[in-house]
Structures are given as structure tokens and as C-alpha cells.
Design a protein that fits this description.
The structure is a homodimer. By secondary structure, the first copy, chain A, is an alpha/beta fold. Chain A folds into two domains: about 180 residues, FAD/NAD(P)-binding domain, CATH 3.50.50; about 140 residues, FAD/NAD(P)-binding domain (3-Layer(bba) Sandwich), CATH 3.50.50. Chain A has 13 helices and 26 strands. A six-stranded mixed beta sheet of chain A has the order 5-2-1-9-22-21. Chain A is globular and about 70 Å long. The model of chain A has no long low-confidence stretch (mean pLDDT about 95). The interface between A and B is large, with 54 and 54 residues.
């Protein structure tokens, strides 16, 4: 075994999952590292935050995912550095791990863009831990207001969401349904209908990656559900009890959800190279690092150009998954002495849902869907992409429950 | 509304649930208090601890349970005292709550019986929080050993369970299956088969409430699954890396599960009365407090005698549920000027499961079951008793998954 090439994969998000798929049972020893013991299905995080799905449906055991990969080892540890010269990965609580080939899929962190108070007082929504914390905070805010009605006057029932991309829009829509379907019954002593859900974005429209029609539809669908929009303006500061907007408007709230942008993990710094946009690591057409054909970088941490369109690829799960698979195949090509292949992203479209029966889907070749059809498509695609049949079945039950019983069944707060 | 009698129910375990059932939609204003926002289905806690069920299946939103009870209010708060003279309940973060009738169903806490180090170094298993913490600890212990193989020599893979009642036996059996079905595959670098699961009890047999046949069957079933038994001896001390038994035997372990006994919540102290066994509050035949016909005490915090058999009733969920219902009906009788009724427990039997296809059930009239039939009965009864159809469906999926895929699907650790 000692003379088999050693491949190390950093991170088990969509990028690491894709790479693992390409490297299963090949003639190489693969070590997979992640700081958590689970893979996160990020597109459904907001459903954990809004009490529709339980964390165990959206987080999947990494050991279960790879324990049938005969050539894989997994360690739960935090990566602290990469030594390109020695070809080793430094981790928090183990000796450095040597590699012959490296696939770095370390993802990103939330970017607060230096907005005053944002880091201290807002709730990001990028990890499963974030989603659980946000859910617990919202439930706690309502329980506290129930015991102390004065808090309502201090904005305890208001939620401000910063960022009008899919995460912000989906969270706003789901919160509106949580308020109108559950909290009005759950909290008979609270004026739940006075609780405001406000979505703020610097762009003049929500879902700026979608076409005009879909953006207009999403805006209407949000407003129909009672979500207030503050478009074309930024948040200038976040405090413990309020948010201030560019216009000077101050909104009383104790719950600010930050869905506002990403910065790459500090891989570029470790590698000693000049970072690209958002701290990302520029890569070549085959996703390898310039001057280091043994190192591949994929997913939210990579700044890759599509080999056919020459456009910089967006930070999307689908891009990360395909790039991970491609990087895995390129490692195999290197091992077998074949040339690597440039990466081309096959765009299968993207979707966002605003609430039951209301979604938008923008497909390739200019096809777009909205309303119930888009919503059914959204549900089917996400079910199909979820990891593991058990999670899929649990999700079907939870969604049907949500739809027909009009109840979000996961609204409990288990302290740890 | 002001002249309607005010009923306060303390605690939403089985006792509080029973009382809530009897008082739904009656001509009284009911306030329900609990320190958590969920009711816990305690018989399945060990399945959360052993990664078969997710917490959301075993914990059910109290607000959802009572939001269709037109005369109910719920507050999530911790009770800190009862003032019998003023007829008020003191809570942590609200003004005192007045009552005309009180039903106290405050449950119990784990009793470490003064064993040295037990409180500091062992994991109780009585609450949902306990179950989540225990699961996370076990997963973390294996992940740590995976990164640092020396820990295995220090007992990182050993688990000692103190207490041979249903909780201890069911946990031991479920851990044995978690080790042999999942961890052996999940941790290929660890000698999982050398991990020991040791059950300690002071009595000469496990499940002392069951008959001789069932006890012998349970002992065999545990041993077949590799569980080591240390019967007829007590634990004398618990340290961070070991447990010492009465025999002098020292077992290296970092995971001690305390399933060893209960002490009642401090209600007797608050009421200023002499506590009974285990700190419980002695009650009259109708479950009311001597000299205070407006106060009823039920469940693990009560020391009640059955009105027909005159035996002290055991601390069981089924007793608490029936007593809660009875106390609720007696409050109604008081309101309507009718005499109260003495409480009689209808024993429907009790059960414990050791693993797939292996359970014991002791029914009334001397009927007993063991093996697959008892296991099917155990599963059906627990499913039927679970709160809410969504939880039942989720549990069916999880159990079938566990049975046919031989995988515990919830083995992830989400830090909060």
C-alpha cells in the first residue's frame, strides 16, 4: 500500500463529495478531512432554521458516505495550513498529513463586508450550526416576549433579513409561513400579526441572478406573504436591538439574519498566493493551481473560469459538485500519466422557492418556470439531490406534513 | 373570564400531559408551565442517545399540543417555588402566578446517591438534553480515538452503564448494535471490537421489576450481544478516565452512563413538608395534598398509594399519565362541587427491548412475552403512544431503516 499515491481531500461539502465520487475504489489511498462529522445539504438549511426539517435530514454522516469506499480514510479535524513545498496538510490535532495529490474544497465563510455590528449581532446562515442557532434564537425570542410583553415594543417579533439572493428570499418566505401558520396559534397572547419580516438588498430587485419576469414574480410573492422589501439600499449598522439602513430608517429587531455574501476560507493565504475576488484562489482551466499540477482547488474557495464560456463560475453547489468530480478525474489522469481535462460547467438551471405553490426556476436555453409548476420542480429536484434515501423519505413526510397539516413540526429548542 | 377558576399545571411530562387532557376546553383558565418548549417521550430517549431517532421525534412542541385547547396558556419558564398560603407559583422570569387549583407534575432528577465523582464524570439519561449530550460525547470519543490511537488504550472505546433497569438495559443493547453494525464500518482504523460495553447493577439480576424468566432471558440476550454484566455490586467511584466497582475492579472508560435512580424535584421543600422516599411528596388517595384539597401532585414527584392495592405506585410514565388524568378530573369535580375520586392505576404491563428481535414484556394476569413477539409488541405499543402522527411516521421510517439497512442514520454531531 505504501507505494500507492496518496490523495488528500480537504472539506466534504459539495466539492469534496464530487471528488470522493470520482476517487472511489481507485488505486490510490484517499484521506478525507472535514471539521464536522457530517456533509451539509446547504440548499435546505433555511428549512432547518424555520422548523420544517430536522438537522439530521440536512446533515449526513460523512463516515456513512465513505465507509464503503475501500480506499478512503476520514478524519474529523480542522485544517490549519497547507505546505506546498513539503506536500503536507497541517491540521489542528494530528501530525501533518502528507499528500501526492491535493484537492482543496474548503468552502467559504460569511462576509459581513465590515458593516458595523454585523458580526456581533447578526445570525449568518451558511452552516448547519448556523441554522440550528437561528431556529433556537427565533423560538426563544417569541418565548421571551410571551413572558414579557414589553419586548414586543422593542421589536422582539421583527426579523430583518440582509441579502436578497436565494437564501434570503427562501428564508423570508418560510418565516412568513411560520408566523402565519404556526406562531399565530402557538402564541395567542402575542400580536404575531404585528411581527414584521423585512428583506433588505442593495440591488434594486431580489434574486438578481434570475431574469426580470422571475424577479418580479418573486417580489410579488414575497409581498403577498407580508414580507416588506427594502431594495436598492444597504444596511449601515446592526445593533443588539435595531438595524439601520442607508436611508436612515431604523428598524427595531433582535433578529438579523445575514444572508449577504461569502468570503473564501483562508486557503490563498496559506498557499502564499494573491487571492482573487472574495479571497478566492485563482485556478487554471483544469482546476489545478498554477505551478502546482498536483494541487486542485474547487468550490466556493476557487476562482475558476469555465473552459468554454470563459466566464468566472458562480459560487453554487452545482458548480462545486461538478468541479469536484472533474478534479477527482484529473487526479486519476495524473496518476495514470494522462493529460488533465479542462472543466466545463453544465448549467442545469437554478431555482428558489418563496412558499407553498410559489417558486421560480430558470433553466438553460431561456426556459423559465414560476408558481406551482416551479414549486413542484423545485421540490422534486431537491429531493432527488438529497443524500440518502432515509433523508429523502423523512423530507417527504415533513413536507407533506407541512403542506396538509399546515404545521412546522420541528419547532422545539433542545439546549445542549 | 376573571371569575373562572384558575388552574395551574406545573410540568409537561406524562403527568402534565394527562392533566391537560382532562382539562381541555372546560370552564376554567388553565396555565401550563414547563422549563422546556417540548414534551419528552422518555421511553425512547435511549434511541436518541444511540443515533436511531432524531431529537425532534422524541420531543414534541408543547405549544402545538395545547394550541387547540381554547382555555390553555403556556409559558416556558422554570418554577422556583410554590406559596401554599398565597396560592401562587413562583417562576424564574415572570411575576408570581396565582391559582385556585394546582397540579404539580414536576418530575424528578437523576440521583447519584453520593457516589464519588458520579455527578462530575457521568452522563445521566433522563432528559432530551441528556440524550443529545450523550450521543455527541460517544461520537466525539470515537472521532478523538481515530485521530489519536493512544486513547484506545485509555478506554476511549469503553462504555460503562450504571443501572440495570429498562433504561440501562435498553441503552446497553442499543450501544452494542451501534458498535457492531455501524462503528466497525465507520472506524476502519479503530479496534471497535475491543470496545467494551459493561452494565453494572447492585441487584443480582437486570430488570428486577420483571419475573425470573424474563430477567434470565434479558441477561442472555445482553451477553449474546457482547455486553459484559457486573451484577450484585455497586460503583464506588467515577473518575474522568475510569470507574471503580465494589469488588475493587477498575474499568478504564471516559463514558459512564448513569441510569441509576431518581430523586424527586424539590417540591416537598417548597411546600415545607416532610418528603417521602426519594424526596417525593406523599399524597392522599385522590392525589391531593393533605390539608390542601386544591393542590394535586402526580408523577415522579408524587408518592402515591394505589387506592385498591394500597401499594406505593412506581415511578413510571404510565402511572404519571393516568394520575395526571385523574388529578385533572378531580380538579373538575372540585370546581363542580362534586367529591373527588381515589386514584387506581390500571397496570397494562411493562416492556423493555434489548435489540432487534429481542425484548421482554410482562403483562397483567401473569402473561409474559419474550423474543420477537415481545419486540413487535414493544414497537407497536411505543409507536402508538408516541405523540403526533408526524413523529410516528418518522419513527417507522427510522426503525425500518435501522432494521433493513443496518444503519443508525442519526450519527452526526451538530454543535450549538
Amino acid at each position: 500500500m505504501a507505494d500507492r499515491p496518496r490523495v488528500v481531500i480537504l472539506g466534504c461539502g459539495f466539492g469534496g463529495m464530487g471528488a470522493s465520487h470520482s476517487l472511489r475504489d481507485v488505486a490510490a489511498d484517499v484521506t478525507l478531512l472535514d471539521k464536522n462529522d457530517y456533509h451539509t445539504f446547504q440548499p435546505l438549511l433555511y428549512q432547518v432554521a424555520t422548523a420544517t426539517l430536522e438537522p439530521e435530514t440536512v446533515g449526513h454522516s460523512i463516515r456513512e458516505l465513505v465507509h464503503d469506499h475501500s480506499n478512503f480514510r476520514f478524519h474529523q479535524t480542522t485544517v490549519t495550513g497547507v505546505n506546498l513545498a513539503d506536500r503536507t496538510v497541517e491540521v489542528e490535532d494530528m501530525p501533518p498529513i502528507p499528500y501526492d495529490y491535493l484537492i482543496a474544497a474548503l468552502g467559504a465563510r460569511v462576509n459581513f463586508f465590515g458593516v458595523e455590528g454585523a458580526q456581533e449581532h447578526s445570525f449568518p446562515l451558511y452552516t448547519l450550526k448556523d441554522a440550528v442557532q437561528l431556529k433556537n434564537h427565533v423560538l426563544r425570542a417569541f418565548e421571551e416576549a410571551d413572558k414579557n410583553p414589553d419586548l414586543t415594543d422593542h421589536g422582539a417579533l421583527n426579523i430583518v433579513i440582509v441579502g436578497g439572493g436565494p437564501t434570503g428570499v427562501e428564508t423570508a418566505g418560510a418565516l412568513a409561513e411560520l408566523f402565519s401558520m404556526d406562531f399565530v396559534d402557538d402564541f395567542p397572547d402575542l400580536p404575531v400579526n404585528e411581527g414584521r419580516i423585512i428583506l433588505v438588498d442593495g440591488a434594486p430587485a431580489v434574486l438578481h441572478a434570475f431574469n426580470d419576469d422571475l424577479r418580479a414574480y418573486a417580489k410579488d410573492a414575497l409581498e403577498q406573504r407580508g414580507v416588506e422589501l427594502r431594495l436598492g439600499q444597504h444596511v449601515t449598522s446592526v445593533g443588539p436591538e435595531s438595524v439601520t439602513l442607508q436611508s436612515g430608517e431604523q428598524i427595531k429587531t433582535r433578529t438579523v439574519i445575514w444572508a449577504g455574501g461569502l468570503q473564501a476560507s483562508p486557503l490563498a493565504k496559506w498557499l502564499g498566493i494573491e487571492p482573487g475576488r472574495g479571497g478566492r484562489v485563482p485556478v487554471r482551466a483544469d482546476l489545478s493551481l498554477d505551478g502546482h499540477p498536483e494541487v486542485f482547488v474547487v468550490g466556493d474557495v476557487a476562482q475558476a473560469e469555465d473552459s468554454e464560456t470563459h466566464e468566472v463560475l458562480p459560487q453554487l453547489g452545482a458548480v462545486a459538485l461538478q468541479a469536484g468530480k472533474s478534479a477527482g478525474r484529473n487526479v486519476l489522469n495524473c496518476i495514470e500519466g494522462k493529460p488533465t481535462e479542462p472543466f466545463h460547467y453544465r448549467d442545469k438551471g437554478f431555482m428558489a422557492t418563496i412558499g407553498r405553490g410559489a417558486a421560480v426556476a430558470q433553466m438553460p436555453f431561456g426556459v423559465s418556470l414560476r408558481g406551482t409548476m416551479a414549486w413542484l420542480a423545485w421540490g422534486s429536484v431537491h429531493l432527488a439531490l438529497l443524500t440518502g434515501w432515509e433523508s429523502r423519505m423523512a423530507t417527504v413526510i415533513d413536507w407533506f406534513w407541512d403542506l396538509f397539516q399546515r404545521e412546522h413540526g420541528k419547532r422545539i429548542h433542545v439546549e445542549e
